[in-house]
Amino acid sequence: MTLHTPHVDWFGLSPVFALIAASFLALLCAVLVPRALRRAAAFALSVAGFTAGIVLSVWLYVDSANGHTIAAGAFSRDRWTALGQIILCGVGLATTLVAVEHVPGWGRAADRARRDDHDAEFFALLLASGAGMAFFVGAANLMTLFLSLEWFSIALYVMCAIDYDLERSLEAGLKYLIVGSFGAAALLFGSALVYGATGTISFHGIAAAIGSRGLAGDTFVVTGIALIVAGLGFKMSAAPFHMWTPDVYEGAPTTVTAWMSSATKVAALLLAFRLMTTAFPHDSHLWGWAFAIVATASLAIGNLAALVQRNVKRILAYSSISHAGFMLIGLSAGSALGGRALMYYLIPYSAMAFGSFAVVAARERELGVPVTLENLAGFGWERPFLGVAMWFFMFGFAGLPLGGGFVGKFYVFAAAYRHGWVWLVIVGVLATLVSLYYYLGIVRAMYMRPSEELQVRPGGGVAVTGGAPARETLLHLAVGAALVVSFGSLFAVQPLIDLARHATGALPF
Amino acid sequence: MNASSLTSILILLPIAGALVIWLLPLSRYATGSLAVLFSLAEVGFWIEQVARFDFSGSGVQMAERANWFGDLGVSYHVGVYGFSLWLVGLTVVAMAACTGYGFWVGRDRPRAYFGLMLLLTGATVGVFVAQDLLVFYAFFEAMLIPLYVLIGVWGGARRMEATIKFVIYTMAGSLLMLAAIVVYGLQAGTFDLVGGPASASRWLFLGFMVAFVIKAPLFPFHGWLPDAYREAPPEVSAVLSGVIAKAGLYGMLRIAIAKFPEPTSFYRTSVLALAAAALVYGSLLAFRSPDFRGVVAYSSLAQSGLIALGLFAGRDLGFDGAVLQMVAHGLISTSLFLIAGAVERRTTTGEFRLLGGMARGRPALATLLMTVGVVSLAVPGSASFAGEFLILAGVFQRAWWWSAIGAGAIVLAAMYMLRLISAVLHEARGSTVVEEALDLRPGELALVVPLVAALLALSVWPAGISHHSFFGRSPVAAVRSQFR
Lengths: 509, 484
Description:
The complex is a heterodimer of chains A (509) and B (484).
Chain A: H1 14-32, H2 35-63, E1 68-70, E2 75-77, H3 79-101, H4 112-117, H5 119-136, H6 142-160, H7 167-198, H8 203-213, H9 219-235, H10 244-251, H11 254-279, H12 284-307, H13 312-333, H14 336-367, H15 379-382, H16 384-397, H17 404-418, H18 422-447, H19 451-455, H20 473-491, H21 493-504
Antiparallel strand pairs in A: 1-2
Chain B: H1 5-23, H2 28-52, E1 61-69, E2 74-80, H3 82-105, H4 110-129, H5 133-142, H6 144-154, H7 159-188, H8 202-215, H9 225-231, H10 234-259, H11 261-266, H12 268-288, H13 292-313, H14 316-347, H15 363-376, H16 383-398, H17 400-425, H18 442-460, H19 463-466, H20 475-480
Antiparallel strand pairs in B: 1-2
Helix pairs in contact in B: 1-2, 1-4, 2-3, 2-4, 3-4, 3-10, 3-14, 3-18, 4-5, 4-6, 5-7, 6-7, 7-8, 7-9, 8-10, 9-10, 9-13, 10-13, 10-14, 12-13, 12-17, 13-14, 13-16, 13-17, 14-15, 14-16, 14-18, 15-17, 15-18, 16-17, 16-18
């Protein structure tokens, strides 16, 4: 018996390797680098890792015009993967910039020494979860899909609980762990059923088996698809698999929330689109309807529940649920236009989601208490740049033509209409209308409170720098980048759509 | 300078001005001066555009087109027609006066304030020149962003309720319009307004109309209007009723009527009924309103109804009169709100029971309010007389009772306007009117007098607008050709 080792296209995997190598090095920092330099060293490694990831995935994008699978059919080297990795690494870089001033929790000046203890570990986990996601978006069989899902999930569980002496953070980590494991189990069970029915784990192989053996209506396949939809639904925090989202987003350190809310969603949605269109094209009506219903539920629950929240992180968590709903509209259309819509939507969405949580992180650090609509009063006038940025993100989220969110919504509506689902367009429109109330609520809180309230200085909390707002240069840089991306995507629609079109070209349509 | 780039300049100049003001840390005085300078430059560019406009030519002029995203057929396409030219003129003139008013009263947080005013100017001009549905929608929505903040930050005590109501109402309409735009554009394969085909879909027509009747507003959709007009700062109320409301009416003309001929005639009677209801109901409410701004606000509702009556009459005279009346009423209500602001600054209130006798010793205020009031109640010889006469003559050709209703409402207009004039200027001196309260200052005169002068010029030569709005002999033919 000879053992055949497959030929591996190392370059195709290079963004993942860059991230994972940086992660290992950052972990070594934790023991080898003196404490004084530790944070700087880990930060530099993280920047280097994500930058290398961006460079390599851009290179891969250019060089992978003809998509194919590599490493014995385990991983797809194509433009869909590469564009997803570019977005992920961009968000990772921005997270790194915010994290260096916010490692990893908020406002405990007394605990600086403690927090320094796991600076390097934080960056190592960030890089590791980034590597997992970068692998996840390119997964080409059910095995790599599940492994990479667990890979980034485990890193995220730890990151949520990294403020281990804060009850809230521990609770977030535990909740995410339990619910996330449940989702992963559903996904695994679904994969097993699909494998049982088709006898293969490769996405292309599944489609071929279903096609050639007429398994489209097979009970195992249908149940398997349902369970996979549920499992991925947990990761993209779409209703009714969303119940962990508000608690975890609220409890986790805000930097981690920013990373999760944009990157996890990018990874889960892109992979879901690839999996469904590649492996289950024969059941497209089935998963199309399933995702359309999930989208409707997410839009309804996300927007209605956000209306009654006072905590800004919870509002943004529900907003992220509702945006999962919008993007799922594009996914449920299951067409090339839907793919373009999804890919385009993710670009301004991830920028706005990241940016808004980063602004919340800045306020939280200033106050030392969770940010609510009440203590956001006057923020817009006190911190003009961050205020304008938040104003911008909120209007952009609401779909007003201030940023690419507007065009993204337009595209997913167009995809739904082309699919013949006018009702889904109407649902989306109504959801947008409801969402205005709480997005404008945040703007109102920042700018329009009566002036006597504006005078109130944040009290009770321990501001890290003691009073005056901290000079968070890197955070400003990251928020500025998010602004540029979300604003620029309104004007550069054609180039971005071209990128998305080429990416979608890698999928079988 | 290329004539067709003038259109884009009119959009981009104020937006660039807003960015300059936001980025440069100038003093209050410098910021205000710069903003006024930008809005005056805007007026200058508009005059240049009028001078270069070929009134005998047909189709869209000074058009510019660039690809925005091609796979769905969306492009940045702007250009002007005769009637959009006049509405752009109304916008830039009214916005210049209102920006100047903000400078005169010294609004707090000047950089934010003036930046938003300029942004609003650019967005509103964009609505009137957009020739692509998505561009139109983007500007239509973009108007909302500065308005929301302007009312919410610089408004009166109950501004929160007012802004929420305003935004939810208008967004409800415009999001339905977005759905209609998606459907129309994908069916047609293009979002271009000039090249796009006519549609016979009644649902799409209704989707567009709901946005426009809320913005205008017409009768049962005016719930946001009284609060917004009362709580906004006076110059923003002036913009709202003078200019923004016209965007809804313009949309009816440019999109609903031109692109949906069959649904227009199907729903004609219903829309005419709504318009007539707005006219009568608005006039009655204006007559019963206890304060200055309430009268002007409800009279705007009435005037929107009248203009919609003219538009949906579907006759030559009605179209001509509607465009003339849009401009005339825009100037009237802008001046009235600015005068209301001046009165409120002197007496702290606009309530009639606390006002009165302001004419004594304040000749400029009395003269201006009197002049605008008289023009507004459509005294023969005034611009709004010409406009209302054309509208009524147009709708008379549809059926005589529409113009009977309209003529009755003009009587009501005389009643509420004379009531306003006497309650503010005459009668016994109100408890809040102190002897020392000054007449209009030169700064205020410099803002209101040009508006009134424009109004008088229009009264002298209403044909300047009513004969120069639609190419060709007949507006109906121009509409039927979808303005191609």
